[in-house]
Amino acid sequence: MRELAGLKVCFLAGTLGQGGAERQLYYMLVSLRDAGAVPRVLCLTEGEYWQERIEALGVRVDWVGQGKSPIGRLARIIRQLKRDPPDILQSQHFFANSYVAAAARILRLHDIGAIRGDAFEELESNPGLRGWLSLRLPRALAANSQTAIENALTLGVARHRLSFLPNAVDTTMFTEGQRQPGKPIRVLTVGSLVPVKRIDRFLRTISRVSGRTSMPVEGLIVGDGPLRAELESQARELGLAEDKVRFCGTVPDAGAWYREADIMLLTSDREGTPNVVLEAMAFGLPIVATRVGGLPAVVFERETGYLAGREDEAALADAVLNLVQDREKRIAFGKRGRAFVQRNHTLPQLTASLRQLYNAVLPPEWVPSRARVGSDLSNTYRSAP
């Protein structure tokens, strides 16, 4: 299998805000840089959370999202790529897939689109022609869950176009917490306050659990979004005072909240392989989650946590209550979860997955850019005009 050294990869990101897809982009850039590849980022937004951190890696970030015209954006993307064509043009967000595929065809580049959810979610979020083009145009698609791959097959995507690119966690950053007995049992969720995350379900679960135990239980909601006021009102209606549930808002680094928590509860209607669950497991937290997307592949029943049907709120509450009442089980599940992440979702494993993905996309006769020009390309993207 060919190595990554000398490979020039340009990512198109729809946003560099505080999301799981953006964190995974950062990890991929670290892995590629450390493997001797030459990564670059084009972004449809500017000045967001991850941009400064990516640039600190020595990776160039260029803004191509000026204006709202898709044709104008595509023209800017093409101009950027013409200045220094990459070996691979890769999308990091589903809604950017059509730009990547169109630019790659015009410039005769190898392209890879992204599926970050379960494929159905992407089409619902991008209705009509935009979603169809984002699914159909890329010659290759990288999905972060096997469920998304199976769903894409049912949507008519050919299997040879689909590759599995699992999420990774920097386990050197996410260390196991030291939770002390005698404090309230803290149940954490992390994510945007948007409909698909079903934080309303999280609140009802906390209310059910609190009503069934004399042990103090506190829900922690890390994240923000358009539903915040509505959810705060729901919490009051459920009798969840500030000592029962806290809206923590958006934070630069959720690490402190993982360390303070005892249980991770994810109540989404749809997911791919959620970054926050892998992070929670890396911190040694047991997981309770809805049985959606790629979660059955990372949360093992009665070993690292519990899964329940999306609408089975009683089962979610039973699982959380079981862990609330059994500290030893919380610790045992958490240790097994952390070990699983260390075996399967680390940065070295991400490097291997990227190598496999790119070898599947590139033709057999491909020669690394470094070998073609016979010079050091380490500063090529950073010095481009």
Concise account of the structure shown:
By secondary structure, the chain is α/β, with parallel strands linked by helices. The protein is about 40% helix and about 15% strand. It is built from 16 helices and 13 strands.
Protein model, in words:
It is a single chain. The protein folds into 2 domains: 8-168 and 346-383, 3-Layer(aba) Sandwich (Rossmann fold), CATH 3.40.50; 185-344, Glycogen Phosphorylase B (Rossmann fold, 3-Layer(aba) Sandwich). It is built from 16 helices and 13 strands. It has helices at 20-34, 49-56, 70-83, 97-107, 120-125, 129-136, 146-154, 199-210, 228-237, 255-260, 275-282, 313-324, 327-344, 347-361, 369-373, 380-383, and strands spanning 8-13, 38-43, 61-63, 88-91, 110-115, 141-143, 162-164, 185-190, 217-222, 245-249, 263-266, 287-290, 305-308. The strands form 2 sheets. A 7-stranded parallel beta sheet has the order 3-2-1-4-5-6-7, with helices on both faces. Strands 10-9-8-11-12-13 form a 6-stranded parallel beta sheet, with helices on both faces.
What share of residues is helical?
40-55%
**SSE series:** EHEHEHEHEHHEHEEHEHEHEHEEHHHHH
Global shape: globular
Trace the largest sheet across and list its strands: 3-2-1-4-5-6-7
Average pLDDT metric: 92
The chain-level structural class is alpha/beta
For the terminal residues, how far apart are their CA atoms? 34 Å
Q: How many independent structural domains? A: 2
User: Which CATH C-level class of the largest domain is it?
Assistant: Alpha Beta
Number of strands: 13
Helix tally equals: 16
CATH architecture classification name of the largest domain = 3-Layer(aba) Sandwich
Rg value? 22 Å
CATH fold group of the largest domain: Rossmann fold
How would a crystallographer describe the biggest sheet? 7 strands, parallel
The CATH superfamily name of the largest domain is Glycogen Phosphorylase B
